[in-house]
Design the sequence.
């Protein structure tokens, strides 16, 4: 394989670098498409939950769902086929119900859409869907992909640990001991990575399922999951893949002794001084009590 010399270090394999860059760009592209897909007007029937009309229209109150527009259109236009109209056609048919004179302001046009990213104040991915939401297929597809990725990553890490263990067993002597120590550290790190992924995603998917089947309402937990539990999985990964977390944990006892040893020593000295002042008075009171007891006996 051809390569060039880096300024610091050995040769760089151009082919491997291009492969890594291609994978990174592909991931960014797919992520961008997934993020922008719900905003495309072509797919609004699969992501828009409702629309807002101006208050002057006096026809709907609050967010208007497609199911609420259907009876109004049917009552105005007469008999209609039992089919679900698209948002575009529903809006056009509703607008045609009014004269729309040029001398008057047109209030028959919707003011805003309640789209996929606007269902909550934090404006993030709408994971908590019910069976009535139009985006349920898209959301569950993403959740299933995340769960499959978790299983694949867990399986891959377990295979890596088993292969490393079998390779270390084939080496004897001092090298084997060193490999065993390295494998133990690696297996411990793998276990922590799998555990953090499990704690972040599996309970979240379970909560999404319970909310979907209306076993309980998890809407109030949306901000907690989307702003704390899910991002923490990505935040903690750099510490897990690097020795920084292990080094930090190993230095905590030493840091504790360094910070609190002077305090503990000062507390011990103060306690000894207090005991020194209290002990003579206790001895004196004890002697007086003995004298009183002797006089009482006489």
Sequence:
């Amino acid at each position: 394989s051809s390569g060039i010399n880096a300024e610091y270090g050995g040769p760089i394999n151009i082919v491997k670098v291009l492969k890594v860059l291609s994978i990174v760009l592909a991931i960014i592209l797919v992520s961008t498409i997934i993020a922008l897909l719900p905003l495309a007007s072509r797919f609004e029937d699969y992501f828009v939950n409702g629309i807002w009309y101006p208050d002057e229209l006096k026809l709907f109150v609050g967010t208007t769902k497609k199911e609420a527009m259907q009876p109004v259109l049917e009552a105005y236009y007469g008999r209609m086929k039992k089919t679900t109209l698209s948002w575009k056609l529903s809006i056009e048919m509703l607008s045609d119900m009014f004269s729309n004179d040029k001398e008057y302001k047109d209030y028959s046009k919707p003011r805003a859409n309640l789209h996929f990213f606007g269902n909550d104040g934090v404006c993030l991915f709408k994971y908590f869907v019910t069976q009535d939401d139009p985006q349920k297929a898209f959301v569950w597809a993403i959740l299933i992909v995340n769960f499959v990725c978790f299983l694949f990553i867990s399986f891959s890490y377990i295979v890596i640990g088993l292969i490393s263990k079998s390779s270390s067993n084939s080496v004897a002597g001092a090298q084997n001991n060193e490999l065993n120590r390295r494998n133990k550290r690696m297996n411990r790190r793998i276990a922590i990575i799998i555990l953090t992924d499990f704690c972040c995603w599996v309970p979240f998917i379970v909560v999404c399922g319970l909310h979907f089947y209306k076993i309980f309402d998890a809407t109030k937990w949306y901000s907690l999951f989307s702003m704390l539990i899910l991002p923490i999985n990505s935040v903690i990964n750099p510490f897990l893949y690097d020795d920084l977390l292990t080094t930090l944990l190993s230095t905590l006892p030493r840091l504790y002794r360094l910070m609190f040893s002077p305090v503990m020593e000062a507390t011990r000295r103060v306690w000894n001084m207090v005991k020194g002042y209290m002990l003579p008075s206790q001895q004196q009171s004890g002697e007086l009590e003995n004298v009183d007891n002797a006089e009482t006996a006489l």
